Structures are given as structure tokens and as C-alpha cells.
Amino acid sequence: MFPEDLKYTAEHEWVRPVEGGPAASGAGVVRVGITHYAQDALGDIVFVSLPEVGESVTAGEVCGELESTKSVSDVYAPVTGEVTARNEALEATPELVNNDPYGGGWLIEIQVGDGQSGDTLMDAATYRDSVEG
After folding, report:
1. 49 and 64 Cβ atoms separated by less than 8 Å
2. Phi and psi (nearest 5°) for 59?
3. What is the pTM of this model?
4. Is the distance from CB of 34 to CB of 75 less than 8 angstroms?
5. Nearest alpha-carbon partner for 15 in 96, 100, 120, 88
6. What is the dihedral of CA 107, 109, 112, 117, to 10 degrees?
């Protein structure tokens, strides 16, 4: 339920480096989604609002919304940088976030800004403790 190769935020987003570069070095692209825990708490997701490619996002600030049958929840940027991709499949099938939160239900990819680090992100064990504790 908490993949070990991901980093996590207190707001229940996950981060995975893509294109072979470690995100913590400040060079590289990361893929972002919400955790299984978050999608389960939200319920059935019916609409996803994401930033456009080219938009700048700031770590800890709202960068999108997920609307479920229960509520509307903000999505927070886990790192500062520029959006390089968004999961266009979610427009037609937002339920991918529920069905495959760590795979096909990813939200955006971000080119991490120079000098940014992932120091505020949690490893899987720390995140697990935060939601189960």
C-alpha cells in the first residue's frame, strides 16, 4: 500500500523520479500522484483539475483539485518547478486515480527547479507511520 520507491508529502501526494535523474539533486523530472490512502479517503473521484504544461508550481502550494462524490480536495505541489506533463487520460477517466493511484492514475510531472531538494518529503516508513499512527 506504500511503495518503497516513492517519497511522500504530509498532504498525501507521492513523488517518483522519472527520466533517470534523482529528484533530490535538483535535476530531473518527477511524477506526482496521490496515495492509495488519500484516494480511499476521498471516495469515487469524478473530476480532476490540473495545472497546464508550462505552469510553475511551488512546493506546499495548491496546484490542482480532485472532486469526488464526497468532497473537493486540493492537490499540493510536492516540489517547486515547472509542469512538463499532465495525465490527459484523467479528463475522460478520473476514476483512474482510484483504480491505479501509483500507476495510470498519476497526475502531473514536474521539472524540479534548480537547487530544490526533496528534504521535506517522507520515505514510505515515515509516511506509513503518519497515517497509521
Report:
1. yes
2. -50, 130
3. 0.91
4. yes
5. 120
6. 40
Judge contact between 34 and 14, C-beta under 8 A: yes
What grid cell was written down for 8? 511522500
At 131, list the grid cell. Answer: 497515517
The single residue listed with the C-alpha cell 483512474 is 96
Q: Give yes or no for a contact between 61 and 77, defined as CB atoms under 8 angstroms apart.
A: yes
Report yes or no: 79 and 120 within 8 Å, Cβ to Cβ.
no
Task: Sketch out the chain's domains with CATH numbers.
Answer: 7-126 (2.40.50.100)
CA distance 34 to 46: 15
Q: How many CA atoms within 13 Å lie on the side-chain side of 52?
A: 2
pLDDT digits (tens, 9 = 90+) for 5-61: 999 999 999 999 986 544 444 458 999 999 999 999 999 999 999 999 999 999 999
